[in-house]
Design goal:
heterodimer; A: about 260 residues; alpha/beta; six-stranded mixed beta sheet; four-stranded antiparallel beta sheet; 10 helices; about 25% strand; B: about 350 residues; mainly alpha
Chain lengths: ~260, ~350
């Protein structure tokens, strides 16, 4: 199996604060990896090192390597915008661009990254279909995105990230602001997307992790920097964890 | 125990990467001198324009060669922003410089202990002082703040919190007020108070005139600041059974504290140097008057205006020194306000 994205010994700091220690993980194409763990364990920090969003915080520093198809994305002289083009991100709160219509939102990546598309209408439909939103919005593509429900907005944001054809999609708690129905729709979307791309999802919802992911990584901070305690097949992590702390967490004894 | 690697910032520019841009900027500077010396360009502005064009273009082509077209456009946009920021900084620096340069020679200790009561503006600058004007200006600022800050903030609260009847009309009026020429404010107070009522020109009438200018500034800024306070905070307060006033006074206003201080400072900045509204309203006395409610008072801008009007070398020197003192006084007030105003606000 080819490995699309690989983190090697990643550490992260905010000024003096060591937020994340020594995480090594491989994300395979066509798989969904869930990152679980209590708040403040460094999951979000980790996911943001994977597409170089970490460096937007002025005090941030890091160590280690992140390889995309074998190439270090932190290498000198690399064009960081090209990296983020290949590693998309969906955020916790739905953030459609307020001044754009639904259609413009989906195609906004083409404009932002100055890409060309032969057939924008096909691309628009394809992205919305893959994000599971096409049926609901196909008759009002010219309407403003603000009129959609929270769940629809989040699926619009997923469709938006798909339009630039990323190889990897990072999702930072994409369902935490949504109701169960919308959450279910997005989980279906994630499962369908997984066949063609690499998905990394941070979630607080353990049922969600067990429903949608192939692999699970459990993060924990014991007061010091956040660390990855255990990684494995999702079924193993949930039914047969090796580490006592993982067992306590997935069985709901803390966190 | 694992070994912890040293934190680093792979995204930061290394000295090697900084080398080329630095060299290009230096080369642009050299080329600028060459071009200005050998072509029809002349003057300081030519240096600036040629240097900016050369350095931003060379950085553009560096990025174009090393990264790509989009990065090059990005670098060009950054160059424009930096230039705009420098353009804003330039006049400020030049004002400070010329004020210091021209004001310092007239500075002497008796400026702060004597008045112009027994001296003439045409005397050598060592005669007389501007104590009367400093006292007058401090009174003016104090009285204007006392009138304008509560008025302005309460108006802003009415517009953002209560949103009661007439909000749109008040909003429109405040906007119109901020466009009133300052001399009109002075004339208005002169006509409506000094002529029409028994109150005669004094410190307080000057403060009335300045308030007409300060109220809209404070209101508009305070309004912007209050709009930034998230609605969740108001709802959280109301949901605990608080009245609107309690919510505003214990939650909204403290949260907006720093911004309201900025509103006050901007307001003071608006009025501290105003001369025109004072011409008809303060009297412009040359002797010390500690009572702003009775009799004429002096003020620093007034002193400067008089000095420039007389036009002799001595009086112009007095004017520049007056400007310097006014500048230091206003900067001092702002510093005090910032230090005391932000002390209690934790992170």
């Amino acid at each position: 199996m080819s490995s699309d994205l690989e983190a090697k010994g990643v550490h992260a700091w905010f000024a003096k604060h060591h937020a994340l220690a020594d995480v090594s993980l491989t994300f395979n194409t066509g798989s969904v990896t869930a990152l679980i763990g209590p708040s403040g364990c460094g999951k979000s920090t980790f996911i943001r090192t994977l597409n170089r969003m970490h460096e937007f915080i002025p005090s941030a520093a890091m160590a280690g390597e992140v390889l995309l198809n074998g190439q270090d994305i932190y290498e000198k002289g690399i064009d960081v915008t090209k990296i983020r083009l290949q590693i998309g991100m969906v955020f916790q709160k739905p953030n459609p661009f307020p001044s754009m219509t639904i259609g413009e939102n989906v195609l906004s990546g083409l404009k932002l990254a100055q890409l060309k598309s032969d057939n924008k209408d096909d691309l628009l439909e394809e992205c919305l279909v893959r994000a599971g939103l096409w049926k609901e919005v196909k008759d009002r593509l010219g309407a403003h995105a603000g009129g959609l429900s929270g769940g629809q907005q989040q699926r619009l944001c997923i469709a938006r990230s798909l339009a630039v054809k990323p190889k990897v999609l990072l999702m930072d708690e994409p369902c935490s602001a949504l109701d169960p129905g919308s959450t279910l729709r997005i989980e279906d979307t994630i499962r369908e997307l997984a066949s063609s791309m690499t998905i990394v999802i941070v979630t607080h919802n353990m049922q969600q992790a067990s429903r949608i992911s192939d692999y699970t990584a459990f993060f924990l901070s014991d007061g010091g920097p956040g660390q990855m305690v255990e990684y494995g097949d999702t079924s193993n992590i949930f039914s047969n964890p090796k580490d006592k702390r993982t067992e306590d967490y997935v069985s709901g004894r803390f966190g | 125990m694992m070994s912890i690697p040293t934190p680093h910032k792979p995204w930061a520019m290394t000295p090697r990467e900084l080398l080329y841009p630095t060299l290009l900027i230096l080369a642009s500077a050299l080329a600028t001198f060459f071009i200005v010396a050998n072509t029809g360009f002349a003057g300081k502005l030519a240096y600036a324009a040629v240097f900016f064009t050369l350095s931003s273009l060379s950085l553009f082509f560096l990025k174009l060669r090393t990264v790509g077209q989009q990065a090059a456009i990005d670098s060009l946009a950054s160059s424009f922003m930096l230039t705009a920021a420098l353009l804003v900084f330039l006049p400020v620096a030049s004002i400070l410089f010329s004020t210091l340069q021209k004001g310092l020679p007239g500075l002497h200790p008796s400026l702060f202990t004597e008045t112009m009561f027994s001296a003439s503006y045409l005397d050598p600058v060592e005669n007389g002082g501007l104590l009367h004007a400093i006292v007058g200006t401090l009174y003016l600022i104090l009285l204007t703040v006392i009138i304008s800050v509560p008025t302005g903030i309460l108006t802003a609260l009415y517009l953002t919190e209560i949103k009661g009847p007439g909000s749109r009309f008040i909003q429109f009026t405040v906007q119109a007020m901020s466009g009133v020429p300052s001399v009109v404010a002075g004339l208005f107070i002169f006509a409506s108070i000094i002529i029409a009522t028994p109150i005669k020109a004094s410190g307080i009438t000057g403060a009335f005139a300045l308030s007409i200018l300060m109220v809209p500034t404070v209101t508009r800024t305070a309004q912007e600041v209050l709009l930034l306070i998230p609605n969740d905070l108001r709802e959280a307060g109301l949901a605990m059974g608080a009245t609107q006033w309690k919510t505003v006074s214990t939650i909204v206003l403290p949260a907006a504290r720093n911004g309201l201080l900025t509103a006050t400072i901007l307001g003071i900045a608006r009025i501290a140097g105003e001369t025109a509204p004072l011409i008809f309203t303060i009297g412009g006395s040359d002797k010390l008057n500690l009572n702003p409610f009775v009799d004429y008072q002096g003020a620093l801008p007034f002193y400067v205006w008089k000095g420039l009007l007389l036009g002799t070398p001595e009086s112009i020197q007095r004017a520049w020194t007056g400007i310097l003192v006014l500048l230091v006084l206003v900067l001092g007030l702002f510093t005090i306000a910032r230090v005391f105003g932000s002390r209690k606000v934790g992170k």
